[in-house]
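ok trying this again, last paste got cut off
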Amino acid sequence: MKNTFLSEMASRGFLSQCTNLEKLNDITNKKPIKAYIGFDCTASSLHVGSLMQIMILRLLQRYGHQPIVLLGGGTTLIGDPSGKDSTRKILHHNNIKKNILSIKKIFEKLLITKNNKIKPIFVDNYSWLGKLKYIDFLRDVGKHFTINKMLTFDSVKLRLEREQSLSYMEFNYMILQAYDFYQLFKKYNCILQMGGSDQWGNIVNGVELIRRILQKESFGLTTPLITLSSGVKMGKTEKGAVWLDKKLFSPYDYWQFWRNTSDEDVKKFLKYFTEIELNELSNKIDGENDINKLKILLANEATTILHGSKAAKESADTARETFVKGGLGKNIPKKKISKKIIQNGISIIELIFQNGLVNSKSEVRRILKNNGIKLNDKIVSDEKKIVNISDLSNNDYIKISVGKKIHFKITVT
C-alpha cells in the first residue's frame, strides 16, 4: 500500500480485522468517505481506554475523511455485554443526556471542528432507537438475525460458558448496534464502522444487515484490544480510571500516567498515542538508549494532544522539579485538610489512605516498612507517626511522597 489512511493504520498497529481490506483501501484512495465509531455514555467522561479509537478518528481526518461520532444515548440505556462479566447499572435517560454533552466537549478538543469537509458529525442514536415500534422492528429488522448465529458471538458465548447471567435486554444489543450502522448508512452514506476487536461480531452484523435490507456493500474493521504488559486493561490504574476530562484527572496526573509506562509498552505506545511521523519516530526510538527519555517523549506528546503544549510543558517542569531536584513544582497534586484535623493530629497511615493514594491501610504499612513513605522529604519509619501542626512548612503545606512516583502536598483550610 502507498501512504494512505489504512496503510498508516496498519503501520501504527491499529488494524486487527477488516471485512474487505483490499476493496476498502481502493475506495478510500479514490474519494473521501464517512466512517463512524460508537461510544457508550456511562460516565461524564471517556477514559484513556477509548483513546485508540479517538486517535483513529484523528488519523481519518488527516487523510481527508469525515468521522461520525455516535454517542449512544439509546444503546447506553441497554448496556453493551461485550467483555463484561455482569449486567451494567441501568442509567436514567437524563443522566445519559448530561454525559453526552460532557463527552462531546472532549471530542471538540481532540478533533478538527472548523473544516466543514472533515469536521465530526455528532449523532445520538436515541434519535432513532427512541422511536422504534417493537412489533415493526421485530418484523423488519429482527427477521434478519438468527438465534443460532447470535449465540456464536463472543459477547454472548463467553457469558453463557461462564454461567453468568445475560439479560434479554443485553442480548438485543447487537441488533441495535447493527441497526445504528444501517441508519448511518442511509442518512449519511457512512460506509465504514470501526471499533475494538471485541466489537467484531456486532460490526459484522451491521454489514450484513445493510446488505440484506439495502443490497449495498459496507465495511467494518477492528483494532486490537490494548492491555498493559502487566496484563491490566488499558485505562485503569491503582488510583482509578485515567479520565480524559481534566476536572476528573489533572493534566499533571495524565502526564505522569504516560511517564510511568512500562519499558515493554513505551515503543508500542509511541506509535499508538503520538502523531510523530513514523520514519521520524523510528529514528528516535533506534537512536535513543535511555528508555526514560522515550517515556518523557510519550508523556509530552500524549499530554499535548489532549491538554495542549502549555499543560504538557508545565507538567514536565513540575516532574523535573519534584523528582530530579527534590522540590515541589507548581502543578504537583494538592490535597486539602481541615485545620481542626491537623491540630488534633492524624496518623500517617490514615492520612495517605483517606486521600485515595493506595487501596488499603495494609498497603500503606507495607510501603512504610520498605522505607517508601516520606514526610517533607524525610523517611517515615514509625507507622504510629501522627501528622500534626508541627509538620507544616513555612509555606503552610505538608509534602507527602508514597514510593518513587507519587508526590503531593497537603494544604490546610
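PB: full thing came through this time. The two ends are 61 Å apart (CA to CA).
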